[in-house]
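Hi everyone,

Forwarding the result from last night's run.
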Amino acid sequence: MATFLYKLGRLAFRRRHFVALIWVALLTLAGVGAATAPPAGTTSFSIPGTEAQKAFDLLEERFPGTSADGATARVVFKAPSGEKMTDAGNKATVEKTVGELADGSEVASVADPYTGNAVSQDGTIAYASVKYDVSGMELEETTKDALEDAAQQARDAGLSVEVGGDALQAVPHTGTTEIIGIAVAAVVLVITFGSLVAAGLPLLTALIGVGIGVASITALASALELGSTTSILAMMIGLAVGIDYALFIVSRYRAELADGREREEAAGRAVGTAGSAVVFAGLTVVIALVGLAVVNIPMLTKMGIAAAATVAIAVLIALTMVPALLGYAGRRVKPVGAKSKLLGGGRKGSDKREGSEKTDHQPKENLGTRWARFVVRRPLAVLLLGVIGLGAAAIPAASLELGLPDDGSQPTSTTQRRAYDLLSEGFGPGFNGPLMVVVDAKGSDAPQQVFTDVSNEIKNLDDVVAVTPPAPNKGGDTATITVIPDSKPSSVQTEDLVHAIRDAGGDIKADTGAETLVTGSTAMNIDVSEKLNDALLPYLVLVVGLAFLLLIVVFRSILVPLKAALGFLLSVMAALGAVVAVFQWGWLSGLLGVEETGPVMSMMPIFMVGVVFGLAMDYEVFLVTRMREAYVHGEKPDQAVVTGFKHGARVVSAAAVIMMAVFAGFVGSSESMIKMIGFGLAIAVFFDAFVVRMAIVPAVLALLGKRAWWLPKWLDRALPNVDVEGEGLRTADERGPGPDEDRELVRT
């Protein structure tokens, strides 16, 4: 592989006009597709195999034409202090508002509070339910404006009015902190390379890659039913890995220049060595993201595949466009140790000119070298300190509670959250998460009696405030019953109630043959959480197992990949502990803009496992391949660790800081899910890069010595030799490029 990538790097350097034209054309094509594509619809939340989804499908079949997926709105009214909603003036205002809402072209129905028993017992709060023909993301702006105008007119009349539901659903934005994250990345790159041009290359190529990926997702969003969060997550991951992959290749290119190689040769060798690590690091990320398909949640599968495609684009750009841009940059990209004139280079005594003879004095050891020597001298102490520290950070994860966000997790500044709070105040917290029980009595001889029996059985359960009378369909064989819990939707009590209703339905089915199903957004959220929990272990085994095999091929070792996997588990558990402490317990919540604490998003653990594992293997591959390269070239194990840190620690540290900055930028998102994922990934990268890879990894390798690189002979013969260390490039370097190199590349 190293030889092929070496030729590819030289070809891209030489044919840079052609390579740049291809990528610009792809970016343009994707941009045009995104600009002309129809807007994306609402995110499909189909969860195959769950009872809530089965009940939803049954409703579509037995209650046709009900627009089950249509947008909804709850317009909540509160009377001024000392007044009631039943007062004549307030009642007239509400009825006028209801009439205005009913005139909308996309409105299916509006329920009057005074005829639908939607006034609180103390008479201070009432609500009107609005049902639309289309989903929230498909509503026209005029319809949303009409809803807001009607609410404002009621406010002008003296009432407090808030609007809940998904009718006012907006595409989440990430805020200005995303720009700050990119700015931090730019500063780190300038400090790392000492050159504005060299620093700009990773940013430029990463932005092009993310632009192609996100524009392609936008173009396909309507056809593939991709949600708005899909492109944000693809941007988050694609931007981080895109900068990192280009950073490693540019860094290796500068090191090759410092060794005296010509620029085309340096580009080829950089792609052949660092590029090999990029390929395998990218493969681990892609495996982790595509592996999300095993959960069998379509939305999560699409998010994973879209992000994986963006990562694949980042790898291809790093291997082709980075060497092409290095060709354009020419002498403006300096060797290691040299700075541009703008940053102090070229001054007398400031640094060596390119191609000058080496000075007599011994260069000062860098921080990575000094740290590695310290760890090699005291490996056991460093190992214990790192493991104990991560273990302490992971303690809050033992209190992990899972759920999916609803209007109760919105900021208090939003009308959706204020509507949620008003409904809780007037009707109880469970009113925001009603359960819909679907009774299928098609096989029963007395359907009406079955409906009554189910209703009575539910009334006798704990944590039930109200049960509506059964509402049968036209055929009389299926009915819906609405159950109002006593607790809020995300509580453990509500989850227990859902299971209690399902258990009672099992007994009824045994007696009558009728099937009782529980659905609704609350029940769907509970089913999603359970499905994700059940899938976590198989997913972990699949992803870690495949990546473990891949790393055996890369490192030709058993213990090094095993150490990598165990270190990852430590970092992800510590990161989950930090997420629980902030988003569930409320630590530092004000600093991070977390207005409402509560259960951690149910897909957070499995998503973090997938993404963090892929990113963790990035640092493992980039850092440890330099150690193995030194070891196979004859250095002793301890010295190989030091050499690996000498060449890789600075760049890996810079890559980690950049990735943390990019992920932390998404903490400013208006979407609670994006905020939580951004924080979780940023803290996970910190733990993995600076504790696991920078401390635990060298400590373990120092303790293992030569045993770290042990591989059974039979397995060594069976494994393909991918030559990540670039051993085969020595002979290629001596031969030099041939006249038929382009054709040879194609044949290869």
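The CA atoms of residues 276 and 724 lie 5 Å apart.

Cheers,
N.
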